[in-house]
Amino acid sequence: MKKIVLLLLNVFTCSTVWAQLKSPEEFLGRQIGTKITPHWKVLEYYKHVAEQAPQQIKFQQYGESIEGRPMYVFFVSSAKNIARLDAIRKNNLKIAGEETGNTELVDMPAIIWMSNNAHGNETSSMESSMMTLYQLVNPKNSASQKQLENTLVIIDPCLNPDGTERYNNWQNGILGAQYHPDLYAREHSEPWPGGRVNHYYFDLNRDWAWQTQLESQQRMKIYNDWLPHIHIDFHEMGINAPYYFPPAAEPLHEVITPWQREFQTTIGKHNAKYFDKKGWLYFTKERFDLFYPSYGDTYPMYSGAIGMTYEKAGNTSAGLGVYTDQKDTLTLVDRAIQHHASGMNLVEVVSQNSLKVVEEFKKFYKQANAGELATFQSYVIKYEPNQESSIRSLLDLLDKNKIRYYASEGTFKGLDYSTKKSITYTAKDKDLVIPGNQPKAALVRVLFEPEAKLVDSVTYDITAWSMPYVYGLSAVASQNKITSTKPYSLEKVNNNLAESFGYAIKWNGFSSAKVLADLLQKKITVKRSEYAFKLNGEDFPRGSMLVMSSNNKDVDIKKTLKEVGDQHDLKIYAISSGIIEGAKDFGSSDVKTIKSPKVLMLAGEGIRALNVGEVWHYFDQQLKYPIILVNPREMSRVKWSEIDVFIMPGGSYPFLQDKAQAENFANWVRGGGKVIALESAVSQLSAQSWVKLKPIKQDTTIKAKENPLKVYADRERESLKEYTAGAIYKVDFDATHPLMYGNKEYYTLRQNGTLYQYFKDGAGWNLGYIKENALMSGFVGQNLSKQIKNGLVFGTESVGAGTIIYLVDNVLFRNFWDAGKLVMANAVFQVD
Q1: pTM for the full model?
Q2: Rounded distance, CA 77 to CA 292, Å?
Q3: How many angstroms separate the CA atoms of 832 and 828, rounded?
């Protein structure tokens, strides 16, 4: 009798709890999609559901956005699985070989991770996620309750809270009682910089591997603590497209296993059946490939999961409802319903194949740890003192991605990255080796192989990113398996400084630039040497910094230098005398004081937000040096006499087309201003009459024997002959010029064929140029490849007392192109 009473009490308690569970419509007081829900309100609903169904939901805050908005993941499963949540996580890491111990497969749920709103103006996924959350735990949904017995669903409601709220606040601030579907209505024209990007205008869906952004760093930490088996990334595309879901388009990287390909197809077919019943149009196997490693579908693939992108028509111009070209009305209600359907269909098909999903996940990691997914069994990074800063940066990237590395020992036969020739190399002290047999073997292969095989040239992103080229490091890719598991580390710098005539700091990496930026803001007088010299047996390259005690009497220079040097792991050397054996003395005119420049950049309509963000984040978060951002329409109010450096990222600069404004700008440069122009800004400057730089003209005329008729059906592939999404070229450069100080090797990412004529007769300095046969990695169309040779990519030109620095290729691409960071610092601080 007592047991019956307790059972009835439990039933009554559960019924009371479930009676309080509200659907999204009940909680919000409206249908999902009839208004855009603020981020904070979405989280309120998630927490409401978690409070009403505590046996089936747990949640965890894993971080905060740059603007301070909380970021959460919610774990949804059966009561049994939620009660042993951490045991499931640890068991999964054992399956992957990330932890040791016995593994259990029989009672292991398939782990599904759902990511929403990586792009803040693709709002349907966050809206639909509330519907999915509710239906997963809805007690009336017997199907989902059964599916959760062998699945664990992890939902991230919003990967990009700051961009999302930028878009949501704008939309909710301009909408009235009715939306207007005509595309010319203001609700379909989002203001700059748009909600797609995060606080620093970065595309978070291209930052999974690089983790340059705070949101990515925090999310990837918890992601790699779980390593889900399935990852679905919800997005939106243009308003005239229908719906996209897997299987993905070619190219798929070779490391993607047959099972991963097969199950993508299984998932796609399952979703197609539901869409067919509803009469919803969709497409698969087009546009969205699986190659570039830093997407929300590829990164999970290279981590053993089934990674997938789902795209619904919508995006920035959709609003609550918009007319398509077919005069259909695309509504947020419909967009949310279709994403919700895809999410529920995914849980269903994974539940049906749960054991197989887990077994194949284990098989993937068994192959990874055995080295069976590798093309090369080890990657050896050669240590050189002047590249230590870059190696430390690489180690940081490896740690973020939980990639294992060790101290290198023995002799390696393999491919030299610089020469592309086979060599035999014997490891030296402080050489670093990354093995090809480890849990993250697939990711290691993708990030480090000198050149990935491209089975289809129609790609959605860049085609080359090999880490030794990105970091400008000397390296060998070898078939030798390593035997050493000796931990690798670089010694933490601990400067002990005594009173001295002065102090010297080598200029040999981005850490040197960060030290300089810090010292200048602390009002320390810093000089630089334009020549290399030796000091107590140590070699100091051109550009090395000198801090003289006599110039810094008002500060505790020893304490300041120690703090700054230790913080950035940079050694400070004492100078006992101004006389230098074998070189010019420190009183030479070639030793110049480095100015603390005032830096300005336009940021607003016309300037590409992504490019602005790269420069802004570089200064604000990496170099930690102030930069003034000015709206283009306020340019006339700038006190140019106070500005030392004007940075022009890619974008449109209409003031250069205005004769009066262009002349005023030229006069500022002639008076001593410094311009750093990148990418398309270079071409706009080269069109000015007062600039000597000119592009190389390519012959595009049709030859007499050439057939002018082309096959229309082949138009996309024909266009690729003149195209590159992004390929790596070796740059020959003048190492004696301040722009290239500290670089031993430099490789550039080319995203077009634009090159410039070499300066002649002293008109400017040719500093970085591409010779013939300089392609190192990536796809370049056959016609375009013939053009990318014998042209300038880096140069400077004197205009009166001022200087223009031309960076034809983007040295700060997505802020993961590490070697370019030093080039930009040189442009700001070293070049006069």
Answers
A1: 0.95
A2: 32
A3: 9
